[in-house]
Amino acid sequence: MNVGVRAVLALLRAFQALPLAVQAAVGSALGTLLYALARSRRRIALRNVELCLPELAPPARRALVREHFRWLARSILERGLLWYAPPQRLKRLIRVEGDVGFAERSDRPVMWLVPHFVALDVAGQATQLFQSRPVVSIYQTQSSPGFDAAIRAGRLRFGNGILLSRREGVRPLTRAVRAGHAFFNLPDMDFGRRDADFVPFFGVPAATLLAPSKLARALGMVVQPVVAEMLPGGRGYVVRFLPPWDDWPTDDALADTRRMNAWIEAQIRRLPAQYLWVHKRFKTRPPGEPSLYA
Known about the structure:
This protein is 47% helix and 17% strand. The protein is an alpha/beta fold and 294 residues long. It has a domain at 87-274. Helix 2 packs across helix 4, helix 3 packs across helix 4 (58-77) and helix 11 packs across helix 12 (253-270). It is globular.
């Protein structure tokens, strides 16, 4: 691990000891600075909001993206809290709502469907802190081996999870689910055309994996949506374990994926500033269509 990575991780470890209200204030200030400096990501976020929420006037879009950067910076700095704080402190800061114990009681494999809100990692820790069923998830390997190791260690710190690289394919995931792990699934990123279809997302065709529906059907899984939210002023976090879908999946993976995207849209409208707008959700285009980010 190089010196720079060690320094950043040491800073995160020290920063997490501060009161959460102080961390939140520092993170918000950093987000305001990032909004001014991170021109490329700012342009992506503004374009995504323009495409998804066209009813907003340009000043409202800018205000939304500015607020998003404040939440985003907070989520980055507060990773230290999630990775290093004592479990008792995290349990005080994370409030769970809904049926968090559903996966423990289920006699069928469980898929948690978790959209990319900035408190995503809070939801991951909540599935390990507040229920006992082992968890498996898939993540994007980092280019820095030091940061990659830190992410793995932080997300697996409670010892009841498996973290698979996307490069490993579906077989290790299938084995883990069949062995009794609940699948913490992140369904709303653009991974290209492979195993995907162009499904409307706020009315815009978006390359969306059909795998959640297909995997749930193949393994007889029941799906429980989960949404995580950061609270203002350092008041902590809320993770909502919503009622399981009793009519999903069906034998129509495309229709299931349309419904999934519509559900994610509804969650974004409820909490627009905390969705991960800096991701190029519409990077992959149908054949012959130009880039939406040019």
